[in-house]
Amino acid sequence: MRVAIRADASVTLGSGHVARCLVLARALRARGASVTFLGQALPGSMEDEIRRQGFSSVVLPAGVPADEDAARCKAALAEDVDLLVVDHYGLDAVWERAMRSRAQVLLAIDDLADRTHECDVLLDQNLAADPEGRYRGKLPGHCRCLLEPRHALLGEEFVRLAPQAALRTGALRRILIFFGGGDPDGLTGRALAELDAVDPALAGDVVIGAANPRREALAALCAASGGRWRLHVQTGHMAELMAAADLALGAGGFSHWERCAMALPALVVTVADNQVAATRILHERGACQWLGDAATLQGAPFAQAVRALRAAPEALRAMSRAAHEIVPEGGGVARVLAALAQLPPLAALDSPSDDIDGRIPR
Predict the structure, then answer these.
(1) Tens digits of residue pLDDT in 57-78
(2) What is the pLDDT of residue 358?
(3) Cα dist. 250→85, 117, 247, 279 in Å?
(4) Do residue 342 and residue 256 come from a single domain?
(5) What is the reported pTM?
(6) Element of type H or E holding 82
(7) 196 to each of 189, 228, 298, how far by Cα in Å?
(8) CA–CA separation, 205 vs 203, rounded Å?
(9) Which residues does the chain have with pLDDT short of 70?
């Protein structure tokens, strides 16, 4: 089975699109598929990581219109594919229609519901006030929808460790800091400085991407902490780090569902407009505490929130319980593969289903 995945990563875009597609790619490869990634040549593109994981990677020119991007993708694929996955906010039905002749099945991964799609399957793993209604009129009638965090593409480590995730006791000793692979707003360094002001004995783990522009400065900060803060660059052990933490400081986006799967309370700063809606819902459900948007963050919000949680351990316990209820154990990779396997061209992906939801918004 031949699969192609069109997704971009960069310092400004972040690594989330490629990261979740890598999860899907590994699951597809385990079922015999050959997977090729197609992505633009951008700073922080994750091409090295894609190749390190054993996948082919085609580099496309950056900054071209969608129709030219589609033409280049078609030219780059030596053969038609059984499954084409597109995970890109800048591509819509125009690009998908142009690629139709090269793919038997097209899966679009979206979080925004702000454009039309020409796809056979739509995957949106976010929480939304009206998950079905927001795609009404934006999809073809035959499209199958896989909605909400029950379909979240959690990696193998989360599938293995999430069932063992413990509800937090209310103690606050170890903190995980991760504001995305690129962290263009410099929130990691800001958080470290504020936490040291709260208590110089606080410790934990700091995660950044390989393309983080402040990598050397953050490495120096962690080295100067005397071992209290450990720096992890492009780690493959995020679930372990989350399991060891009492609290996370991070951005919105896909990390929400990883933290929820591990019952990890979080202080969240949104770093992009598309993170706001899901973050607000999680905040309202008590699964995280939303501190605001990076562009308008003032004062010392991390320090203030950590002090408040240390004084109210019951609030940390409640946040852990609420987070744990959001994402079913094991995430949604198996559900997504089972749904895809119900389409005749992808029957080779057949695996046990678990209450697959195939409702289509009209």
Answers:
(1) 999 999 999 999 999 999 999 8
(2) 43
(3) 27, 31, 10, 11
(4) no
(5) 0.87
(6) strand 81-87
(7) 11, 10, 18
(8) 7
(9) 330, 351-362
